[in-house]
Design a protein that fits this description.
The strands form two sheets. The protein has a three-stranded mixed sheet. Strands 4-5-6 form a three-stranded mixed sheet. Helix content is about 65%, strand content about 5%. By secondary structure, it is mainly alpha-helical. The protein starts with a helix and ends with a helix. It has 22 helices and six strands.
Length: about 450
């Protein structure tokens, strides 16, 4: 929204050479708002504006930009400019930027960094994308348990200027393993001579650096944390996942899940819809659509196989859309609930039998309502004169109702079981949600419908 409201004024100021207006705005704006404005301008204009601003402000704004725009801008900077920018970024943002560069350019930037900064990069770059280690920052405060409150406050004042997160200080043993945590409120309210061991909270949630990044996000939300301690295989504190980084990651994961849910492939990023090229949208969408189109041919083959049934009783064709739509909607509802519960760790693949039993009971209740509606529709809108000899409205109604009941039950069970099965093999459950699920349910629904019609009506 801001880019549409303010970007034209910024563009006009650039064209007129009114640098003071540009500087005043970006110095006063929040970094996130400034980044949104830059995202609405041309890349050349973004570069011109960033070169006017102070290095610390540039780093704050740059870290809020979409990943693709960061990569574009980094490609336009000289090695010296890029090294200066990387040095001003927080360690986790610095590593994210370096990972997007070609190896030669990354080596140039690394050579220009101070040794402590290079060591931080080497420590963080080891962790693969998708792990808690890839989200963490190494800028945290660790204190011995033997320090008094007075000593701890003095230490925090000295170190805080170089740390990303200072609200929590982590109490560690001699090996660097976390024992507990104290926050600034604890320190302010405590007696000056009390030791950290006496006032710390030893109920400290941690996450392994090698754990899935979704686990760190889940723990931050579950325990209502500002930041989460990250430990290595030896249990040593190696970093923190901060709340803001977890929120950014959660947004990316949500986008990824939504795209998979709708059959859109590709890695989710934070580039806006309008800035994403048409060709990119096409590549991300076409794959699943081709697969689903091919699967859709199966439905045609089923209809062809039951052509004699449709020819003998055309009224069956009138209720086919209702059966297919009801099954698809039932399956999608079940899949959505299961996928959500898996994401929130309320369910695991081992709960499959409990989930199926629950969905069966839900489906039976749905069948009472939907079956009555289906039979009522047939009774009210199907005339006996439209039916061949030997076929009654009641028999057609029973056929439609029975088919609907079996379809609702099977769709609910399939919708619940597929995500659990996929999760069992370590894949993303959203992969089998709509529209892939809808296609499977459509195929099974047609088979159920025509098989029951042939069995009940004897055609």
């Amino acid at each position: 929204m801001l880019d549409r409201l303010i970007a034209p004024d910024i563009k006009a100021a650039i064209d007129s050479g009114d640098l003071s207006q540009i500087l005043d705005f970006f110095r006063a704006a929040h970094a996130a708002d400034a980044a949104e404005i830059l995202a609405g301008l041309a890349v050349d204009d973004d570069l011109a504006i960033l070169k006017l601003l102070e290095p610390e402000l540039v780093a704050d704004i740059f870290s809020e930009l979409p990943d693709t725009l960061q990569t574009e801008l980094a490609g336009l900077l000289t090695p010296a400019e890029l090294t200066g920018l990387a040095s001003d970024l927080s360690p986790d943002d610095r590593v994210d930027l370096l990972k997007t560069m070609p190896e030669e350019r990354m080596a140039e930037v690394m050579q220009g960094l101070d040794k402590p900064e290079r060591d931080e990069v080497k420590a963080l770059v080891l962790w693969p994308e998708g792990t808690a280690g890839s989200l963490m920052t190494t800028e945290f405060i660790a204190l011995p348990a033997s320090l008094t409150v007075t000593q701890a406050m003095a230490r925090i004042r000295k170190e805080a200027v170089d740390k990303e997160s200072v609200y929590n200080s982590y109490v560690v043993d001699a090996a660097g393993r976390p024992l507990g945590v104290v926050n600034l409120r604890d320190l302010i309210l405590a007696e000056p001579e009390a030791t950290l061991r006496q006032i710390m909270d030893d109920q400290l949630p941690t996450v392994a650096a090698s754990a899935d990044d979704e686990e760190s996000t889940w723990k931050l939300a579950r325990y209502d944390l500002v930041d989460l301690a990250v430990v290595d295989e030896a249990g040593v504190l190696v970093g923190l996942v901060t709340h803001d980084d977890a929120m950014d990651n959660m947004e990316r994961e949500h986008t990824e899940d939504m795209e998979r849910f709708m059959g859109i492939t590709g890695t989710a990023d934070d580039t806006s819809y309008l800035r994403t090229p048409v060709w990119t949208h096409f590549r991300h969408r076409v794959g699943w659509l081709v697969v689903l189109t091919v699967l859709g041919l199966v439905s045609g083959l089923i209809l062809e196989g039951f052509e004699d049934l449709l020819t003998g009783l055309m009224v069956l064709a009138f209720y086919m859309p209702m059966l297919v739509a009801t099954g698809g909607n039932t399956g999608s509802q079940a899949a959505t609930m299961v996928v959500r519960s898996l994401a929130l760790k309320e369910l695991a693949p081992r709960d499959a039998l409990r989930v199926l039993w629950k969905e069966l009971r839900i489906a039976l209740l749905l069948c009472l309502v939907l079956g009555a509606l289906a039979f009522g529709r047939v009774w009210l809108f199907t005339g006996a004169g439209d039916l061949p000899a030997g076929i009654t409205v009641v028999s057609v109604g029973l056929t439609i109702t029975l088919a609907l009941v079996v379809q609702v039950i099977s769709a609910g069970l399939i919708g619940a079981l597929l995500p659990l099965t996929v999760a069992r093999f370590g894949l993303d459950p959203a992969l089998v949600a709509s529209p892939a699920l809808a296609t499977v349910v459509d195929i099974t629904g047609l088979l159920i419908y025509f098989s029951i019609a042939r069995l009940v009506l004897g055609l």
